[in-house]
Design goal:
With 322 residues, this protein is α/β, with parallel strands linked by helices. The protein has one domain: Ribokinase (UDP-N-acetylmuramoyl-L-alanine:D-glutamate ligase). The chain is built from 10 helices and 13 strands. Helix 2 links the parallel strand 4 and strand 5. Helix 1 crosses helix 8. It is globular and about 50 Å long.
């Protein structure tokens, strides 16, 4: 029996090593802070922090970092029923450069990391079948056996009646080539009910340098319910079968953009499971996207994703004060 409120997030969780100083290269950084991350895990914690019900499905290394990450999920109210540990591979690491403008560059240590070794037969299918929303990215599509596990999980969730939510979360350095990234990201495009892309991903996937409705609609597919394009400080745009429009951003003092998109997605999914009619009602959707924009904005005001993810009260306070 599907749990009408459960959001299951599938994919990678890793540790970002973030420089203690912004605006320097990795080589120049005097030191690094451990910051737990990985987009699907961030989304799960974003959901839980907003009072939603979240579970994470993925594989970690059977090492200190892996157990630390599993503990962080549990401490943040995310169910660990879908977490597996790999004896033979390490938890993934990423060294992140924070540019002066708060944007990031990445250097990854994954050869192979535990998340890449998740096999289809290891999946907790009962957990996946109980999801109201099944959320995923594209990093889990890069290599086998994780790719097959991703495909299987998606298929099982869909058969059980879940809404499929996709945020490609483009990380070019992890892919063999840009062409392969584009091809694989689009290979599962028509399966999703809800898709969120950033302006950068929109340009990458369409090959267009224009961020407009016409370009966005190139990403539309007939099975899609909601397409979202996030535009950073320019807010977000939404497209459904019946209506389209935009919602303004909140202006805050941006320190680190890590996790802002995940916070936005977590907020949106939380509201959709609470009231699925949001997807049919433009005025309700606009309110929800305003809330999601507020959550994304707050997340940029602190370093690291997870410590910066807001509560409902914090998001409502920003909306009220705006």
């Amino acid at each position: 029996m599907a749990d009408k409120k459960l959001i299951v997030s599938f994919g990678e969780m890793l540790i970002d090593f973030v420089p203690t100083v912004s605006g320097v290269s990795l080589a120049e950084a005097p030191g690094f802070l451990k910051a737990p991350g990985g987009a699907p895990a961030n989304v799960a914690i974003a959901v839980a922090r907003l009072g939603g019900k979240a579970s994470f499905v993925g594989k970690l290394g059977d090492d200190e970092f892996g157990h630390m990450l599993a503990d962080i999920l549990k401490q943040n109210g995310v169910s660990g029923d879908g977490i597996l540990f790999d004896q033979g591979a390490r938890t993934a690491l990423a060294f992140v450069t924070l540019r002066a403008d708060g944007e990031r560059e990445f250097m990854f240590y994954r050869n192979p990391s535990a998340d890449m070794l998740l096999k289809p037969e290891e999946l907790n299918l009962d957990l996946i079948r109980s999801a109201k929303v099944f959320h995923y990215g594209s990093i889990s599509l890069i290599v086998e056996p994780c790719r097959s596990a991703h495909m299987k999980a998606m298929e099982v969730a869909k058969q059980a009646g879940a809404l499929l939510s996709y945020d490609p979360n483009l990380r070019l350095p992890l892919w063999p080539s840009a062409e392969e990234a584009r091809k694989q990201i689009l290979s599962i495009w028509d399966k999703a009910d809800i898709i969120k892309v950033s302006d950068v991903e929109l340009e990458f996937l369409t090959g267009s340098n224009k961020i407009d409705d016409e370009t966005a609609m190139k990403l539309w597919h007939p099975n899609l319910t909601l397409l979202l394009v996030t535009l950073g400080e320019k807010g977000s745009r939404y497209y459904t079968k019946k209506f389209k429009g935009s919602v303004d951003a909140f202006h805050v003092n941006t320190v680190d953009t890590t996790g802002a998109g995940d916070s936005f997605v977590g907020a949106l999914l939380c509201k959709i499971v609470a009231d699925p009619t949001i997807l049919e009602d433009e005025s309700k959707l606009k309110e929800v996207l305003k809330f999601s924009n507020a959550c994304g904005a707050i997340t940029t005001t602190k370093k690291g994703a997870i410590p910066a993810l807001p509560t409902e009260a914090e998001a409502l306070a920003l909306i009220k004060g705006a």
